[in-house]
Amino acid sequence: MGLKKLAHLTLRALGLRPEQPEHLSGLPGGAVAAAPPGSVRSGSRRVARLLADEKALIDRARTIAQRLNASEPDWYVSFTVAGRALVAMPLWDPGKKVILTDRDPRSLWFQMRHVEQEFASRRPQPAMPA
């Protein structure tokens, strides 16, 4: 019999769950003390505040992306939460894959202008009225 199996049987014989040994939680059976209903621990308040701040930052960045989208009809602009950055893609065919990414909206705007100048010959021109 292996040492692991022996430890498992010993814990079972003592009435403990092998997944949560007593020494990890300090309570018999490996139970974890739960907070009384309605109480909030200070750690969870801190986490809730950080999450609220993070949500506000994400909402602000999405608003910036929507404004850029509205002001730049030839571009699609969005905000990626995973990369924490604004992403812009041309809605016209520049001839190669162009995806611009930046955390700063001003810098992204300048990158967009640079791409427009670089691929000006491929960019569709507005129709002239007859």
Explain what the structure shows:
This protein has helices spanning 3-13, 22-25, 42-71, 105-118, and strands spanning 75-80, 85-90, 100-102. The chain is of the alpha+beta class. Strands 1-2-3 form a three-stranded antiparallel sheet, with helices on one face. Strand 1 (75-80) and strand 2 form a beta hairpin. The longest helix has 30 residues, at 42-71.
Spatial order of the strands forming the largest sheet: 1-2-3
> What is the N-to-C succession of helices and strands?
HHHEEEH
**Rg, Cα atoms, Å:** 29 Å
Main sheet summary: 3 strands, antiparallel
Strand content is: 5-15%
The total strand number stands at 3
Through-space gap between termini: 93 Å
Short description:
It contains 4 helices and 3 strands, in the order αααβββα. The protein is of the alpha+beta class and 130 residues long.
Summary keywords:
single chain; 130 residues; 4 helices; alpha+beta
Topology overview:
Layout: H1 3-13, H2 22-25, H3 42-71, E1 75-80, E2 85-90, E3 100-102, H4 105-118
Antiparallel strand pairs: 1-2, 2-3
